Task: structure prediction
Amino acid sequence: MNKQSFLSILAAAVIIASCGNKNDKSAQAGGAPQVKEYKTLTLQPQSATLNTDFPASIQGQQNIEIRPRVEGYIDKIFVDEGAVVKAGQPLFKISAPEYEQQVRTASASIKSAQASLSSAKLAVNKVKPLVEKGIISKYDLESAQYTYESALATLAQANAAMVNAKTNLGYTTVTSPVNGVVGSIPFRLGSLVSSATAEPLTTVSSIGNVYAYFAMNEKALLNFTQSGSGASLAQKIKQLPAVSLLLSDGSAYAEQGRIETVNGLINTETGSVNIRARFPNPKGIIRSGSSTTVRIPNEIKDGILVPQSATFELQDKIFAVTVGKDGKTKNVNITKLENTAGNYYVVTSGLKAGDQIVLEGVASLKEGSEIKTHTQSPEAVYAELK
Result:
């Protein structure tokens, strides 16, 4: 190889090496990690309503069994099952001819007693002047007066028998004692019924107001009695906010109710206590026996609320990610109330007002990562609470 060829090869190697160094520097410059931007929120105290739901069963304010007062055969049924009836409206007609006969007999007895009374009165009026003139003994007058008083008593007895006969005859028409809804009717026309029949003719449920019965466990009851205002349990009940009712299809009932009573005994088998709430039912939408849900609100003022999407769970603990002044992240273990405000946790410890938290991608964000913050307005984040 001559000298000129050697110099040419050396120059080419230098050029190639120089290009390689430039490419390496460019690669190093392009591979430097970039700081990623995340949405963040600076926590501020918020107000919210926490709802606690309890399965409940509905009963009418009055569930009255309709029973016959007299024995007889059902002659007519004036209503159908599920009918809305008014107080005093006829429900059944019982065929009992003997009570009609009793009325006729009592009427005849009254007429007979009235005739006897008139006769006795005439006798008194006839004897009285004769006694005054000394024509007959006064004992005859006393006897006539006794006969008159006996006739009065007989007439009173006949009138009482008439009242009793009419009362029994009235019992043959069975009427509704209250406004309500007719339940099932197990008997049909021609059925023999009496006051001793085990099954009622029907049941009328008064549903102008309805009662929702539900159970609260001992822990919830303790929180309730400790947090409510008032010296006694009765005062605490009066201070409770209005409660809502969720119907079986999940829709909210238009009328709000009030908790009225809390059972004084805790069921030792279930560890719960029965509670009754009353709801107005002017349109008769809710029927006795329905299954519903009672929702009790709890107002939270100046609470620290964190979106659930801004947290992650690790080993049965819940964490949020905060951002320090240096722009680096830190995982913070938080505790919260059992009830949630929609999609938000109510934090009791771990975070405070003024802390800045990451709102998105927290599960994959490593602790100590440097990030760029894009602060969101509290109004936008908590818009669902308004």
About this structure: The chain is about 30% helix and 35% strand. The radius of gyration is 45 Å. The first strand starts at residue 36 and ends at 42. The CA atoms of residues 24 and 30 lie 10 Å apart.
